[in-house]
Task: structure prediction
Amino acid sequence: MKLIVAIVQDEDSRAVQDALKAEDFRSTRISTTGGFLVRGNSTVLVGVPEAQVERVLDILRLHCHTRREFVSPVMPLSEGAASRHWVQPLEVQVGGATVFVLDVERFEQL
Ligand code: 2BA
Result:
């Protein structure tokens, strides 16, 4: 058995969970926060037999979209320096999904 840990954007998480449910995959969504943008995202956990990992990855590919986000770099500038420097927002591309596939040593439902 494998545990798929997929970090997806909040905007995509509902569609991902609906599509998983439609194909009888069980999943859990955790509200998480990315370390770089410090914005909310979702981590979806899916436990599956190894043979079904690729199908789950296909579902993630289908429903997780790439988006561009802008982040304002925070620079400790003095008032004088701030008036002389124009700090450009930084553009980053987020997603589709960041996925880890882990071996499950033991699975129990008690
Ligand atoms: P964040 O850490 O908020 O990162 C959002 C996006 O910012 C990243 O998109 C990437 O394009 C950019 N980014 C991240 N760190 C950067 C850096 N040091 N310098 C420049 N740009 C940087 P994604 O790569 O698609 O990642 C989306 C989210 O997936 C991340 O949100 C984080 O929550 C998670 N993630 C990505 N890689 C991870 C990893 N190796 N381990 C754990 N979580 C990861």
Observations:
- The chain has three helices and six strands.
